[in-house]
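To the structural biology subgroup,

Please find below the input and predicted structure for 4-carboxymuconolactone decarboxylase, which we are adding to the shared reference set this quarter. The sequence is reproduced verbatim from the submission form. If anyone notices a discrepancy with their own records, reply to this email rather than editing the shared folder directly, so we keep one authoritative version.
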Amino acid sequence: MSERYATGMKVRRRILGEGHVVRAEEAKTDFDAPFQELITEAAWGTVWASDGIDLRERSMLTLAILAAMGNFEEIPMHIRATARTGASKRDVLETFQHVAIYAGVPRANQALKLAKATYDEMERAQAPEMRAADS
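Predicted structure (tokenized):
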């Protein structure tokens, strides 16, 4: 395991959460292991590990690019990551408004729809914990 891979796994866990990374690792096969190594080193161990911009800004950029390119399947994962990157709901709304102007309203609209559904899911998941804490 390279140092960049180790850094990438650490950053990936920090941003996406331990549960997500464990599930992804369990789903990894010999076939896709080289691809998983590539994204762990390049995306997480290089780009996300850089201190050139903060995690909030990186999160907003990632969401904007995903929406602008129509890569909607990754948006819920990165919306969930905002809980760890510091990007607020307002940041996400502003990001997708920017996408609407520069990449198209339909893509921004789809991204917002996914963000709303993911935030609702996140809030429902927290609700039992909040009720237990109130007891």
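Summary notes: The helical segments are 3-16, 18-27, 33-47, 55-69, 75-85, 89-103, 105-134. The chain is about 80% helix and 0% strand.

Regards,
Lab coordination
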